[in-house]
């Protein structure tokens, strides 16, 4: 038997320098090397040997639309009853579709349009459905250019008068008898950003066309967006209105069950997983996209932890992760001035002040601006930024009446202070504020008063 009387430091040296190794050191070194080598050799074999949870991950992604949409039969029928006019060569009535995010508006319209176009083809009827996402294509010029290009007209990215682009589209469309259904998804964004000129023009287009016919479908998350419309546009566009209500927990459960049959291998979900994902998403305005995301992230988390079954605890962790990712994304993309306002609220919150008013936040904000040489906005502007943060769900600001002292906002953070602080300090402009304290001056004054 060999006695190992080297000290630990020498032992380390032996392991890293095999040429000088004593017999035992050399043996250990070889064993270590071989096992690590074989681990690396089997890198992919090892990963592949883990029993997979997913059968087809893609069906849980937003880009996938299933053939059948549970709990949307009523809306599917309502849309189909209006669009069937296109198969008779007539222009269907214009439709406005409302519903909160994730209520299946886009999926329903995609599914009905596909069936309509397939049948029109079989019946030899010229009918096209043109989907435009107004989040991306968001000005009158861009929309008209996009439509004209669809009919093979060349329109430059900018430079033409809008009338010319519109005429190009009308001419191309009116070459033959056909029906064009234009779907403007996220139409509320378009109106808020670029006004309603495009809607005014499109809603009157049938008067100028001889052969072709156009129908418009607007999809909106915001029920009140028609307040921004000219009354003529409002009545023409809203000939028909269809509402998509939020899903409740039972309905979300059915949607998840349907999708999970395709997405997962058999017996990989604990029975509580789908009801829990459905319950969480139902709390968040009945959003099917959120429910599907939560289920996918839960399974990915289980997979990463080398678990072969998705459990309740994975769902809870996934929910936290999604929320932190969401906050991170929103906070990271805020303009610097909003970040400073938010950082002021975080500082006040961390120092134990929980019922903040606009004045408190403004005082800290002003000081932070001076510390990093930023322009100081007026209190009025800062009040607007506070309202924006409220709308984004980062803070909660409620207006309270102070009797004869008027009204003020009571502001509270609705996201975890520490993770928000970290994301804010990632911004190089705010980094030097790392050690800022909200009440530094006040405390100094107080200390002076006490010692005097
Ligand atoms: N009834 C349903 N059955 C199956 N999947 C659904 C159903 N409703 C929505 N989904 C799925 O949920 C996700 C979100 O749906 P969709 O994009 O249609 O919502 P939306 O109302 O258009 O939301 P947004 O206003 O945010 O665009 C998609 O992946 C969609 O396939």
Overview of the structural elements:
This protein is an alpha/beta fold. It has 4 domains: 42 residues; 172 residues, P-loop containing nucleotide triphosphate hydrolases (Rossmann fold, 3-Layer(aba) Sandwich); 82 residues, Helicase, Ruva Protein, domain 3, CATH 1.10.8; 118 residues, Arc Repressor Mutant, subunit A. Helix content is 52%, strand content 10%. The chain is built from 19 helices and 7 strands. The strands form 2 sheets. A 5-stranded parallel sheet has the order 2-3-4-1-5, sandwiched between helices. A hairpin with a 5-residue loop joins strand 6 and strand 7. The protein is globular and about 70 Å long. The termini are far apart. The relative contact order is 0.08. The chain binds adenosine-5'-triphosphate (ATP). Adenosine-5'-triphosphate binds next to helix 5 and helix 13. Adenosine-5'-triphosphate (ATP) binds next to helix 5 and helix 13.
């Amino acid at each position: 038997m060999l006695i190992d009387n080297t000290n630990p430091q020498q032992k380390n040296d032996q392991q890293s320098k095999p040429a000088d190794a004593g017999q035992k050191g050399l043996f250990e070194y070889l064993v270590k090397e071989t096992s690590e080598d074989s681990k690396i050799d089997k890198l992919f074999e090892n990963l592949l040997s883990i029993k997979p949870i997913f059968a087809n991950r893609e069906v849980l992604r937003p880009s996938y639309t299933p053939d059948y949409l549970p709990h949307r039969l009523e809306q599917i029928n309502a849309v189909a009853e209006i669009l069937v006019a296109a198969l008779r060569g007539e222009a269907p009535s214009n439709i406005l579709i409302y519903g909160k995010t994730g209520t299946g508006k886009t999926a329903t319209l995609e599914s009905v349009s596909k069936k309509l176009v397939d049948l029109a083809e079989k019946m030899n009827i010229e009918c096209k459905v043109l989907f435009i996402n107004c989040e991306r294509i968001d000005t009158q010029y861009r929309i008209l250019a996009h439509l004209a290009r669809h009919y093979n007209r060349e329109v430059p990215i900018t430079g033409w008068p809008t009338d010319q682009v519109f005429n190009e589209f009308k001419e191309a469309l009116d070459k033959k008898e056909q029906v064009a259904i234009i779907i403007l998804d996220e139409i509320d964004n378009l109106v808020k950003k670029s006004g309603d000129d495009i809607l005014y023009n499109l809603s009157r287009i049938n008067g100028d066309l001889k052969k072709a016919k156009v129908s418009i479908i607007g999809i909106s998350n915001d029920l009140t967006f028609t307040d921004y419309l000219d009354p003529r546009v409002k009545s023409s566009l809203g000939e028909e209105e269809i509402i998509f209500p939020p899903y409740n927990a039972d309905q979300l459960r059915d949607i998840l069950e349907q999708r999970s049959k395709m997405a997962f291998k058999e017996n990989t979900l604990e029975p509580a997983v789908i009801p829990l994902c459905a319950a969480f998403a139902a709390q968040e305005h009945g959003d099917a996209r959120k429910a599907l995301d939560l289920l996918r992230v839960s399974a990915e988390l289980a997979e990463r932890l080398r678990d072969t079954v998705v459990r309740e605890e994975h769902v809870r962790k996934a929910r936290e992760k999604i929320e932190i990712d969401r906050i991170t994304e929103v906070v990271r993309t805020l303009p610097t001035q909003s970040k400073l306002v938010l950082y002021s609220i975080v500082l006040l919150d961390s120092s134990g002040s929980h019922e903040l008013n606009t004045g408190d936040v403004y005082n800290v904000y002003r000081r932070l601006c001076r510390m990093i040489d930023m322009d100081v906005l007026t209190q009025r502007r800062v009040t607007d930024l506070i309202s924006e943060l409220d709308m984004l769900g980062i803070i909660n600001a409620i207006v309270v009446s102070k009797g004869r002292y008027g009204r003020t906002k009571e502001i509270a953070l609705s996201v975890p202070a520490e993770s928000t602080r970290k994301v804010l300090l990632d911004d190089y402009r705010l980094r030097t504020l790392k050690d800022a304290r909200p009440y530094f001056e006040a405390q100094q004054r107080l200390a002076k008063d006490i010692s005097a």
